[in-house]
Amino acid sequence: MEHYNFAQKIMTLALFAIVLSSVNIEVVRAQGICNVSGEGLMSCRPSITPPYPTAPTAQCCNALSRADMACLCSYKNSQLLPSLGIDPNLAIQLPQKCRLPNPPRC
């Protein structure tokens, strides 16, 4: 009986973690971060997700041109990006790939 309760608690915790990560994804999509809209973030997603990232689109680069780069750099070592399926190293390369002037040095 005690083993069953422990297993039940683990399953409940795992389910909670899945729901919480889903909520985080939806909040980022809806609100955006660092002056980049949720729509702008989603347009960049194919360029920052492994294993086969694409070249950034004009829509992605346009959204990134309005971004607060210092704010974006603050996410470099955050667990948020990997939890969303984003490779931080690919994300840091985006300003240069978009040929934005003065890309940040995170």
Automatic annotation (TrEMBL):
Residue intervals of the Bifunctional inhibitor/plant lipid transfer protein/seed storage helical domain: 34-106
Superkingdom as given in the UniProt entry: Eukaryota
Xref: Gene3D superfamilies: Plant lipid-transfer and hydrophobic proteins
GO molecular-function term, one example from the UniProt record: fatty acid binding
Pfam families, alphabetized: LTP_2 (PF14368)
Sequence intervals crossing the membrane: none
GO BP: systemic acquired resistance
SMART domains xref list: AAI
Keywords: Signal
CDD domains, per database record: nsLTP_like (cd04660)
Signal peptide range in chain numbering: 1-30
InterPro entries assigned: Bifun_inhib/LTP/seed_sf, Bifunc_inhib/LTP/seed_store, DIR1-like, NsLTP-like
Classification via PANTHER family: BIFUNCTIONAL INHIBITOR_PLANT LIPID TRANSFER PROTEIN_SEED STORAGE HELICAL DOMAIN-CONTAINING PROTEIN, LIPID BINDING PROTEIN-RELATED
Protein name, per record: Putative lipid-transfer protein DIR1
Organism the protein comes from: Solanum lycopersicum (Tomato)
